[in-house]
């Protein structure tokens, strides 16, 4: 459905000479990605409003998306798998948050382990990205910088006594990035350097 709309829209833009015909596929792909991301994030935002968790969810999304953009990690094969997986994961986070708040030592231990995993590996070179050496190096550097900033914010928030639920949602964002990272490694969703040659 989304792909059909994207094709029609981009075709009209080509006919009107608003975009270069040679880049038609790129525009279709970009349009599909934007619409799919909007649908997924829109669903999560609507659920968060219904549950009264809008602020916590926004904080989670800012932390998660900032880091995920640089680390990459597991990617589903289809939009529907991605959509249901993402929404289900968010709902799971909502329902496990109370447990994690009550057991903050467990949350903190898993957070530290996640920080170490992301720091050591940095970025997964997913086949869809297929980064060259320089791009991969820059992505790892950016991921580690974001990780330092986010970890610093979390531990500063703990130090000043910020609402523990906010700290929990910030922490879960890093933990989720690490989990997706490890799933991609286990499923071998990455370009190995000697495979590129």
From TrEMBL:
Query: InterPro entries recorded for this chain?
Result: AgrB
Ordered alphabetically, the record's keywords are:
Cell membrane, Hydrolase, Membrane, Protease, Quorum sensing, Transmembrane, Transmembrane helix
Q: Could you list the residue ranges that cross the membrane? A: 44-67, 79-100, 106-124, 145-162, 168-187
One Pfam family hit? AgrB
Name the UniProt record assigns to this protein: Accessory gene regulator protein
Q: Which organism is it from?
A: Clostridium gelidum
According to the entry, what is the taxonomic lineage of the organism? Answer: Bacteria, Bacillati, Bacillota, Clostridia, Eubacteriales
């Amino acid at each position: 459905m989304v792909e059909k709309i994207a094709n029609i829209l981009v075709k009209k833009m080509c006919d009107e000479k608003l975009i270069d015909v040679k880049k038609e596929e790129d525009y279709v792909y970009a349009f599909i990605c934007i619409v799919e991301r909007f649908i997924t994030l829109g669903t999560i935002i609507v659920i968060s409003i219904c549950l009264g968790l809008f602020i916590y969810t926004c904080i989670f999304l800012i932390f998660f998306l900032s880091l995920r953009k640089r680390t990459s990690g597991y990617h589903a094969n289809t939009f529907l798998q991605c959509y249901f997986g993402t929404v289900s994961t968010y709902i799971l986070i909502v329902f496990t948050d109370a447990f994690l708040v009550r057991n903050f030592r467990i949350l903190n231990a898993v957070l530290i382990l996640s920080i170490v995993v992301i720091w050591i590996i940095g970025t997964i070179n997913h086949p869809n990205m297929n980064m060259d050496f320089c791009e991969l190096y820059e992505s790892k550097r950016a991921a580690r910088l974001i990780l330092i900033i986010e970890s610093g914010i979390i531990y500063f928030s703990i130090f000043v006594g910020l609402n523990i639920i906010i700290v929990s949602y910030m922490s879960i964002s890093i933990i989720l990035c690490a989990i997706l990272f490890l799933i991609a490694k286990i499923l071998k969703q990455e370009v190995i350097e000697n495979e590129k040659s």
